[in-house]
Amino acid sequence: MAQQLSAQDAQFLYLQTGDTLTHIMGIYIYDPSTAPGGKVRFKDIVRHIGARLDTSPVFRRKLYRLPFDFDHPYWIEDPQFDLEAHVTHVRLPEPGDWRQFCIQAARHFSRPMDMNRPLWDVYVVEGLDRIPGVAPGSYALLHRVHHAAIDGASGSVSYAALSDRDAKGTAALEVDFDREELGDVPGPVELLVRSAAANILSPLNFFDTLMRHSPALMGAAHKGLTETETAMGPHVPQTRFNAPVSVHKMFDATAHPFAEISAMRRLAAGATINDVVLAICSGALRRYLEHHGELPEETLIAVAPVNARSDQGEARTPGNNISAMTVELCSHIADAVERLRAIRAFTADAKEAKTGLSARVMTDLSKHIPGATMAQVARLMASPRFAPRQTNVLITNVPGPQFQLFMNGAKQTHQFAMGPLANNMGLFIAVLSYNGTISFNITSERRIMPDIDYFRRCIDDAVAELRDAVRASADA
After folding, report:
1. Which of 83, 223, 348, 455 has its C-alpha lying 20 to 30 A from 288's C-alpha?
2. Confidence tier at 65 by pLDDT (50, 70, 90)
3. Strand ranges (E), 244-371
4. Can you tell me the distance from the alpha carbon of 273 to that of 278, in angstroms, rounded to the nearest whole number?
């Protein structure tokens, strides 16, 4: 029997429009000097990916959508699967520097994916010889996957399964995976019966879930009546990031030693790496908006996705299982150390969300909304006119392997990423750790952040500010 998408997976399909693209993209740079003969050809990359297709069902399955999205779509085997239709390549135009690379990555990310094929592709970019810190002869893989198929955690595992632990080709991840037999799509009569049953049972299941979560809902209502913040969460100030987005995305990134970021935790008792990441992003946002004379008096608000899987093994199953945490970034605090301590105090008090209904409750409720209803609501909420102002920025922190990865004998030297934007959410910061480094990856939109390189420097300045504070505390 064909596998049906979960409600959370399906949401990422329903939210997609011409300007709001809901795929994600990993960006990986490789140095071929460690490969046999010191060179990797395009056909070698295609051959390697072809040999690893069975490490994840993501690679061969495509969508089967019902008319009018009457029920959630199904995953089916692509009977016309063509590997070469998913792997293409280009050479970076002159001068082949970091700016040209960022433009090329953003342009590829801005193109809609072919929704009639399995929802992934790999774009090989050559000619990176003039990028500082990148070895001559290096190339990049831009790996796009639709968010309906994976989230950050399952995506990391999916890509690790394509990678090797050494230049000899030893698989980096042992995958105990039996080829998934998706079976045939149910016939029209069975589809109609299943869809009708789902739509009839949805209100009953919704009410049952509502009753099970009633203590949390009552607590949220009480909080809304007794505190200044509403039951739906803290006030989100209006910023340039809360604007309609176009298809023209922007990308930039910067990387720093992981040990340096980790050392910043000692500035605030009990602080985590994630607290430091939030403090760095907050400091960068404060600098950027101050520079433009647009810093709100109240704190900026971030939404941080949270991996809701109970154990790491669940990440090997494709799909989405995420919750979210709403975070006050304390951007109204000028001192970097005090800002970090304030963020730590906030996150220590917020397991899922400090105010309002937890994202987990909302996720559980959304499972029982009929597909057609969810699709219509999602399209409405994604529109420029009705998109809610829920956050100023989305910040996701995805831990990666702290060891060297290879592919085709070439060593992976850099890892970056881009994430989806939405109307009223025009800034996405993805923070990735890999092999002793941590990268801050910026996705925005041309009109919202035309000076994205300046914001990247603001991140570097925010890192330097906390680095200096660590050194000062050590000397004291």
Report:
1. 348
2. confident
3. 249-257, 301-307, 322-328
4. 9
